[in-house]
Design brief:
The chain is mostly helical. The protein is 27% helix and 2% strand. The chain is built from six helices and two strands. Strands 1-2 form a two-stranded antiparallel sheet. Helix 2 (28-40) packs antiparallel against helix 3 and helix 4 (88-99) packs parallel to helix 5 (132-149). The longest helix is centred in the first third of the chain and has 22 residues, at 55-76. It starts with 15 loop residues before the first helix and ends in a 60-residue tail after the last helix.
């Protein structure tokens, strides 16, 4: 073997180990390199005194190498298909379709362990695990969604309405800093929230109501009256470093208890 034997190793390539052990997996990468160079027409190099194979010979060699490598890859395929499970998102969407429940605003699978991925895909059976912890999460999520979808032995609850005024949304007892971000307007009809950030540090909510929450699970319509005002001011931009190009943005927190509504929390924001 010229050029690519143990003595020459041109291009840092030595093909003699493949001849000695053709079945070794790491040597198949050498065959792939040879196949690539033959397809590109780069090898043998077009130099003086270097014989070139005919087109027919090159095609025959390429076909033989391709068939051999395809057979090697086929031999790696397991004889039995690995059963895979539903990923978190597949499971969530399946229960949504079966039960007709809202799985976005109240996602019962958000605490599931992260799904392992292979080449960016989370639904590849050989890398999926299914531990007892995961099974318990799956069962708990199913019970949660079933509890929302089924009403057994209970009367339909009465329709209730809650209205919150600006004073209900203020629960700071005193101003502990030089700036207050929540101030009731002089006429008492509005709550001014002056932050100018794309995402507020924490939610603005009726604290007294949040200590109990809604009495039963169900579908609730939330209406908010809000407006982006006071964007133009006479002060220097560096005094109020707010990005005024951002539109008015609002967020909704869906949490199991008021402790999740602390400052700078993002858990439960949808």
């Amino acid at each position: 073997m010229k050029c690519h034997d143990a003595d020459s190793e041109k291009g840092d390539r030595n093909f003699e180990p493949f001849l000695a052990q053709p079945g070794k997996a790491e040597h198949h990468e050498l065959l792939k390199e040879i196949l690539d160079q033959l397809n590109l027409g780069e090898m043998p190099p077009r130099k003086k005194n270097v014989a070139q194979p005919s087109v027919a010979d090159r095609r025959e060699m390429v076909a033989a190498l391709a068939d051999y490598l395809a057979a090697v890859e086929s031999s790696k395929v397991p004889t039995a298909t690995v059963m895979r499970r539903l990923t978190r998102y597949e499971y969530n969407y399946t229960l949504r379709d079966l039960l007709g429940v809202d799985t976005i605003a109240a996602d019962a699978t958000r605490l599931f362990p992260a799904d392992a991925t292979s080449h960016g895909f989370p639904n590849f059976g050989p890398v999926q695990a299914f531990s007892d912890v995961q099974l318990q999460h799956y069962m708990k999520a199913a019970r949660t969604y079933l509890g929302r979808a089924l009403v057994l032995g209970k009367k339909q609850p009465e329709v209730r309405r809650w209205t919150f005024n600006p004073k209900d949304l203020i629960h700071e007892k005193k101003n502990v800093g030089t700036v207050r971000y929540r101030v009731i307007s002089p006429d008492g009809k509005h709550l001014d929230i002056g932050h100018g950030k794309p995402a507020e540090n924490g939610p603005t909510y009726p604290k007294k109501f949040a200590s109990q929450g809604v009495p039963v699970d169900g579908v609730y319509r939330i209406r908010v009256k809000a407006a982006a005002v006071g964007r133009k001011h006479p002060y220097a931009p560096e005094l109020i470093p707010a990005d005024l190009t951002q539109p008015l943005q609002m967020g909704l927190w869906h949490v199991p208890g008021p402790t999740y509504l602390a400052k700078r929390t993002t858990e439960g924001r949808v």
